[in-house]
Structures are given as C-alpha cells and as structure tokens.
UniProtKB/TrEMBL annotation:
Protein name as annotated: Protein containing DUF1559
Location of the DUF1559 domain: 58-394
PANTHER family: GENERAL SECRETION PATHWAY PROTEIN G, TYPE II SECRETION SYSTEM PROTEIN H
Database matches in Pfam families: N_methyl, SBP_bac_10
Amino acid sequence: MFISFVVGSILSTLTSHEHFERDNMKKSETRSAFTLVELLVVIAIIGVLVGLLLPAVQAAREAARRMSCSNNFKQLGLGIHNYHSAYNQLPIQKAGTGLYPNASWDLSNTQGNCEELSALVGVLPFVEAQALWEQIANPNAPNKDGSAGIWPAMGPTPDNGTGNGNYGPWNEELPFLRCPSDPGTGLPAAGRTNYAASLGDSIVSSTDGPTTSTLNKKNSNAGQMARANCRGVFVPRQKAKFRDILDGLANTIMMGEIVTDLGDRDIRTNPNAIGTTATIVANPALCGDASTVDATRPQFWATSGVALINTGSIGRGFRWADGNPVYSGMMTISPPNSAACVADEGMYDGSGIIATASADKRYGLMPAGSRHQGGCHVLMGDGAVKFITDSIEAGTQTSPMVARIHTSDTGLASGSQSPYGLWGKLGTKASKEVIDSEF
C-alpha cells in the first residue's frame, strides 16, 4: 500500500509538472529536459523505494530457503518410514562392520568402520541415492579424487585418519542433507549435514549405546546404561522400531536440524570441553556459562579461557556418515541454538567411563539449531516437519539429567520424567509424558 502511494505521488507530480509546462509554453520557450533539482528528487524517491524493497526480497528468499529445508526433512522422513516398512526397524545410528584390526572402536581404521556409521548411511537407498549406496556396500569404492580405490565393503571409519580421509563416498556433499540457509561448505569438513538423529535428553551412552570399548554387546552394565540413558528415538548401535515409541509418533521428535561449523567460534558449532561427564550431567547450563562466551557477542565463545575441540577437521555437522553426536546427533536438553559442549571422557569400557582417542567421540551436549530466524525444524515420528522456536519451554536448565553410569544413577533416577519441560518431553519416546502444550 505504501509503495503504491509513493508511485502514485510521483506520477501525480510529473503530471502536474507537464500541465505547468504547457501553461508556460505560451509565455516562454519550451524546455527540453528536467532541471537538476527535479532529477535529484526522482533519484531520491527511487532510492527510498529500493531501500524498502530489498528487505522484502531478502525475506522472500529466506522464506524460500526455509521451505526447501523443510522439504528436505520431509523427504528424509518419508525415506525413514519406507526403510521401516522394508526392514521392520529404523536405520541404526552407529552401525556397520567390526573392529578388526583395532583394539577399540574409537581408533581410526581403514579395514572396517568400527560401527561408526550414522543412520543417514542406511537410509540412502530410500532417498534416491541408490548409486552412492552401491559404492558403499561394495568393496573398492572410488577415492575422493575419483581415482580407483582399495576399500572394504561399507568403508573405513568415517573420520579424517591417515588414509581413510580419502574414501570417496564419505566426502560426498549430498544436497538433500543440506539446508540452503546454511552457507557452510568445503574443507576442512567432509560431506556436511544439517539433519541429525534425535538421541533424547541425556548425554551418557550417546556415543557407544549398549557396548563397551571393544563393541561387546553382552556386557550387562553397558546394556543397563543404554536402557536408562538412551531415551530418544535412535539408540546408538541398537535396533529401534516405531513400536518402541510409546509416547506416540506425533509426539516424539525423530530428527532435528543442526548448524554446521564455519570456523568462527560459534557456540552452537564448536563444542567447548568443560569437564567430566558427571559435571555436565549435574548441570547442563554450564555449557553456555557467561564466563565462557564473548560479553559483546554472546553467540560466540570468548577469545581466551575456552577449550574448544575443533582441531580443523572436527566441527558440528562436518561428516554426514559419522554417527558420533557432534556430527549427526542432537539432544532435547538445551533449547534450540544453545551452546554445545563435550566432556573430557566419553567411552564405557565395561567398568567405568574412560577417555576416547579423539575429542569428537566424547559424550557431549549437542542441541538442535539452524540459521533460520528464531528457531529450527524438527522431524516428528509420524513424518511431520515442525518449526520449534528458541523460546520453547525447556524446564529447569540447571537440573541434572537422567544418567546411569556403571551401576548407579549419577543424575536423576532411571525412568524419571524429563526435567527439560516441553522440549525434553518431545525428545523422549517412552516416558509416559503428556504433551499438553502447542509447539
């Protein structure tokens, strides 16, 4: 309405000017052009119009990017449902081949993937990426540069270790895993992803599930820990089915959007190492403590006194094929676009939690997030895509989380309702929590 009014005013002014010229033609010679003042007025008005239109154009472009991002998520949801129809289970987060010749799953390996693959690998044939799946499922996939490779079926560990960083499929940039609003691209990342599996509302067991450091699935303590701690739709290294989601598919988050790292000390994308697992379990709010962020730019870490884990090749969303939470996992503890952090250790060895070979394999708090304004998308269990605002009710952020470590409850007792409000309830699949608020 305002733009129409301005344009109308300009036309009216020009018309009046023409009438004025006709009246004066009888008294003086006809002028052949506008005066300098008149030209400056018209240019100023055009500048105002452009200034008004640019924000509207930018908003329209972001709306289109957001819709494209939502469509990607819908396709992933459809692929996961088709996978479940075919195999009567969800794709496993952290699946694959065994340890040989490794002594522990956290070590880089060129002869197997140590059950480190994300659920996104398994869903490839159901999202029209059959050709890439064929390369992965068969031996001798191409190298990153396209040359002939000598690789095992299902590939090496999806990390940047010596040799295996050259495995071609793990470096593929897949458009359906990228949100157009996220500008992250290229090295030091491999193939990036903006979509991550929901792991619930606890950080413990988030990298190993019901296994020990040697992938032993018959250890009683590891199994009990996973049953207590892994409250999300996806359980690392364990089969999961829709029937396990007792709170209802429409009430449970299956995947969430994440932001990829740009190397700019963003609190969402470069996790801060803040202490032991027990420290984070006792108070998740320590992840974004005011003493660790820049006072003038609270979305970025302070320039000193912060132990960031990014060593160049480690960053949020850097490897779509890697099942570790920093790359392809998210949790419903802190609200969207909150700070990410990791513990100093994060692997269960059958008798206690020990340090891992690299920081990206530690237990850590990995929130959802996006570069959209005010929130992020989530994929619900029934395939619906919803936009969750940063201000979603997230309970008491200083409350300890549910956490069984070895044989005892370090945080809240196993089976407790989520202390993280509506956000926490949406992330748990079988805690008998009623969703009584709109989201």
